[in-house]
Amino acid sequence: MTAELPLDQVRTLLAVVDEGTFDAAAAALHVTPSAVSQRVKALEQRTGRVLLLRTKPVRPTESGEVVVRLARQLARLERDARADLGMSGEGEPTRVSIAVNSDSLSTWFLPALARVPAELRLCFELRREDQDHTAALLREGLVMAAVTSSSVPVAGCSVHPLGTMRYVAAARRDFAGRYLRGPVEQALPDAPVVVFDRRDDLQDGFVRRLLGGAGGAGPLRHYVPTSEGFVDAVAAGLGWGMVPEVQAEPLLRSGRLVHLAPDRAVDVPLYWQQWKLDSPALAAVAEAVTRTAEQTLRPR
Amino acid sequence: MTAELPLDQVRTLLAVVDEGTFDAAAAALHVTPSAVSQRVKALEQRTGRVLLLRTKPVRPTESGEVVVRLARQLARLERDARADLGMSGEGEPTRVSIAVNSDSLSTWFLPALARVPAELRLCFELRREDQDHTAALLREGLVMAAVTSSSVPVAGCSVHPLGTMRYVAAARRDFAGRYLRGPVEQALPDAPVVVFDRRDDLQDGFVRRLLGGAGGAGPLRHYVPTSEGFVDAVAAGLGWGMVPEVQAEPLLRSGRLVHLAPDRAVDVPLYWQQWKLDSPALAAVAEAVTRTAEQTLRPR
C-alpha cells in the first residue's frame, strides 16, 4: 500500500487531521493552504475515496482513518529507527500513547508504568476513555495501545488477555441501614444508586441478575464519571454501587462500607490491545503492563 | 421570546439535538421524520437563522444553542412546578446536572453534595469537564451549573466566587534526589514532568515564573488525565508536578513526596456558575456547594 501512496500526501493528510483545518496544517508544514488542499485531493483521487469530512475541525472518514493510522505508524517506525541509530537527541524522548479504562487508571496501571526502565526515556500520553471511543482511537492511530474490556481486536491490532477486575456491590453502613433493610433482591431496585455514566450497565446488570433477568437499579441515580469520585460518592452515602474490589477492600475492612451480596461479585475481563508493530518502546510497555496485571488482577 | 417561538417546535429541536438524528427524534416523539424536519425548518424560518448543522450526529449552531438552552430551562421550570404542585411521583426524582473540574471532583465536591438534604430526592448528573467545554455545556443548557476557574459569566448564568485551590510543586523523594539536586530553577526545566493533559499549563507556568518569564517544563512529559492518576504518577516517581495541596498534604507529611519550592504556591480561584433560574433544587445545591467550599477552599 505504501508504495502506491506518496508519503508527502500521507503526511499532509495527517497534519490536516491533527491541526483541524487546512490553514493550520499549511502553517505547520510551511506550505500554502492551496498546496495542502491539492495534496489531499490528489490522495483522494489516487485512493478513489473521500478521506476527509470538510467539517470544522475536519474529520477523517473511515477510509481516511486507515491512511491516518498508516501515517502515524510510519512516523513511529521512523522514530524507532532513529533511536536505534543513536540519532535521537536528548530533547526528543519517545512518546507512547495509551488509552486506559478509568478503573484501571486509578488502581493498577500507574504502578505498571513505573516499572518501565527509565533509561528508555519514554513519555506516556494516557487517555482515559470508554470502550467505544477506545476502538476509534486505536483505529485512527491516535493511541498505540489500550487497556480495554473488549477482546475483539481492532483492525491492525493484537490482543492479549490481562486478567479480570472484580466488582462488589457495596454501600455505606448507615445507607444500608436506611434503604436496604429487607432481602437485598427486594430493596436494591428502589434504593438510590451511584452510576459511572450513561453507558455504565454494571449496577443495572447486577440487579437484573439478582432478579433473574428483568428490571434494573432504581430511578434515583447519581452519575459520577470518575473512578475515585464514584467510590467517594458511595462512601459519602449518596447511593449503593458496584465498586472495584481493590478500592472497596480498605473501606469494607474499616467498616465504612458494607458488602451487600458477599457471594455475588461481577468479574470484568481486561485485555491489552496494541498495534501490530515491532517497536521496542511498545514492547517494553507491554511487558511491564502484562507483568503487573498478572500480579494485581485476578486470573481469568 | 417564548411567545414568538411555538413550544412544539422548540421541543422538537431539543429532541433532535438530544437524539442526534431526525429519525431518532421522530421515534422518541412518536411522529414521522418528515414532521420533525418540517418543525425544525419552520423554527429556522421564524428565527431567520440556521439552528442545526446537519452533521451526524446533528449539532446546534450558536443560534441553535440559545433555543436548546431555552428548551431545557422550560423543561426544568415545568418539572419544578409539578414538584411544587405535588405532581412529581415517587418514580420521578429531580435531576440536577453539574459540570465540575477534575480536581474539585476528587477533593471537596462530593462531600458538598452529600450535604444536600436527602428529602429533596435530587439526582446528580456530574460531568467532569475542562474549562472550554464547560462554557459550551452551560451555554447549550446541558448542565445547569458548573464549578469553573473562569469568572466570566456564560450568557444566562450568574457567577459566585467559591475560594481558591492551592497547588504545590512536589516530587517523590528519590526522584528529587536523582533529578533535582541543584537549585530548583536550574534543575526543573530538564526533569521529567507529569502534566494533566495538553491544555494543562500549571507546570509550564510555574517554571516560567521561576525563571522570570521564559521557558517551561522539560520535554520528557507524561500526560495523565485523571486527578488521582496524576497524584499517583508523581508518587510513583514518573515526574514532578503541581499537586493540589489537599492531596499533597498527607504524602508530604509521610515523607513520600517532597515540596520543591515551599515558598511558591499557585492559587487557582474557583467559581460557581449557574443558570439564572428560580429553581429550589438548584438553590439547595448552590447552598451546599458554597458552604462546603467556604470551609475547605482557601479564602480568595
UniProtKB/TrEMBL annotation, chains A, B:
**UniProtKB keywords:** Activator, DNA-binding, Repressor, Transcription, Transcription regulation
PANTHER family referenced in this protein's UniProt entry, alphabetically: HTH-TYPE TRANSCRIPTIONAL REGULATOR ARGP (PTHR30579:SF2), TRANSCRIPTIONAL REGULATOR (PTHR30579)
Please report which protein family the annotation says this sequence is part of.
Belongs to the LysR transcriptional regulatory family.
All residue ranges annotated as the HTH lysR-type domain in the record: 5-61
Q: Does the keyword Cytoplasm apply?
A: no
Q: Which Pfam family, any one of them, does this sequence belong to?
A: HTH_1
Protein name per Swiss-Prot or TrEMBL: HTH-type transcriptional regulator LysG
Q: Which GO terms describe its molecular function?
A: DNA binding; DNA-binding transcription factor activity
Name the NCBIfam families for this protein: argP, PRK03635.1, PRK13348.1
